[in-house]
């Protein structure tokens, strides 16, 4: 039985491109048909269809190939779980061309260090994102979803609604919004009036 190279690539957002990882995997000897991918899923999410397919495709003696460890996992626990699964199936792991031997104490140490660095990077990204959102919120740039209707339009909608001459569906058509927007606007305006 021939040993296969099974590739795995992942990007966290739909705006990102998998081309660089695909090219790197092909340079490492992985056939394009053996590359499994996840698009728009973070490394902290273990429920990734492409990863499941890649792990399922691995047989005794095969090698799972990733361009970088952070593409495979962003937490030490997930990385360890994946390596344990590969070890149980007698599958090697190649990270950027360097084959990891989980039975070698030095190899296991290096793998754990790499996994900790990947987790640390993920934690830094989350911390920077939270900090950036707090700064944007303090400056008034992060205000949440804006209402579909302007304040004068909301007042006009309430006047027509109180007159009782139009149904909710007709109001939605008249103001070019969904019925749910009409309901929300009425609820919001009634809550504001009740506080006065």
From TrEMBL:
Alphabetical UniProt keywords: DNA integration, DNA recombination, DNA-binding
A GO MF label: DNA binding
One Pfam family matching this protein: Resolvase
InterPro entries: Recombinase_CS, Resolv_N, Resolvase-like_N_sf, SSR_resolvase
Residue numbers annotated as active site: 12 (o-(5'-phospho-dna)-serine intermediate)
Gene3D superfamilies from the UniProt entry: Resolvase, N-terminal catalytic domain
All residue ranges annotated as the Resolvase/invertase-type recombinase catalytic domain in the record: 4-140
Keyword DNA-binding in record: yes
SUPFAM superfamilies: Resolvase-like
CDD domains, per the entry: SR_ResInv
Gene Ontology terms: biological process: DNA integration
Protein name: Recombinase family protein
